[in-house]
Amino acid sequence: MELEVNGFRMHYALSGDPAGAPVLWLSGWSGTGGDWQHVFKEVPAGLRLIGPDLRGNGASTGYQGEHSFRQSARDVFALLDHLGLRRVKGIGLSGGGITLLHMATQQPERIEAMIPISVPPYFPPQARALQRQFSFASLDEAERTRMLERCKGGQEQIDWLVEQAHAMAESDEDVTFTPALLATITARTLIVFGDSDPLYPARLALELHEAIPRSSLWVVPSGGHGPVFGPHAARFTETAVAFLLGERISRR
Questions:
Q1: Distance from C-alpha of 60 to C-alpha of 127, rounded to nearest angstrom
Q2: 0.85 surpassed by pTM
């Protein structure tokens, strides 16, 4: 499905039980709204997943001008308005999680519960170094193929994604979540972080946890960036669904 919003065409998909609890899936940089399928074998019972391709990503347009996660948050709110959804839950991975943090601070009353995965309050030096080095040519062949398949705007879109990643390394405007700002979040929050993330050290997860009032922290041992795929997927599914449905989380 597609929606003309805020000057671009947003591609999005709805999956699962139409009567289930609405849950946003916001993917990371250059990802798509369908990336939930790499974690969940199918949409968990009781949930309805809303998976937009964020501005400039996947099958969405908008790959011109300067990117901001703050604007992506406004775009997603416009999608929720279109769907008639006043209040939702959300899962946000990396850049999608940054968008989710902006949503939770822009309109706190609209985010009931959220799971930010590998999301920093600001970009540390090692992340900025990798952002500066990012290029299409630096990816392995399999990842280049996946990127070409995802980016429906072809090389023009890929070039924009690379350019904007470089711009992130030089900016403090968009990703600066101070303790005072994070303290305005009212959503129940489960922060998920890998303790071996090459972009964001685990201490940043503790900073989020200390600042967000109703937050819990899950640091995944030996987890890298986005530690919810592969061998961690089943455990994440169990934990995330219980959290989003307000059930007791198993500590085993």
A1: 26
A2: yes
DSSP code, position 130: H
CA distances to 38, 204, 241 from 193, rounded to whole Å, are 18, 9, 17
Neighbouring C-beta atoms of residue 232, cutoff 10 Å: 20
Q: Flag whether 26 is in a domain.
A: yes
Helix (H) or strand (E) holding 97: helix 95-106
Q: Which amino acid is at 165?
A: A
Question: What are the phi and psi torsion angles at 248 (to 5°)?
Answer: -70, 135
User: Would you say residue 186 lies in a domain?
Assistant: yes
- Cα three-residue angle 157-159-164, rounded to 5 degrees: 95
Per the structure, the complete domain to which residue 217 belongs is given by 2-244
Q: Is residue 164 part of a domain?
A: yes
Q: In 3D, which of 9, 98, 96 has the Cα closest to residue 59?
A: 9
Beta carbons of 112 and 135 less than 8 angstroms apart = no
Residue 251 lies in a domain: no
Closest Cα to residue 68, out of 168, 136, 157?
A: 168
Q: How many structural domains compose the chain?
A: 1
Q: Are strands 8-16 and 47-52 parallel, antiparallel or unpaired?
A: antiparallel
Residue 133 CB burial class (10 angstroms; 0-12, 13-18, ≥19): exposed
Is the separation of the CB atoms in 30 and 10 below 8 Å? no
Task: For 89-127, write each residue's pLDDT tens digit.
Answer: 999 999 999 999 999 999 999 999 999 999 999 999 999
CATH of the domain at 42: 3.40.50.1820
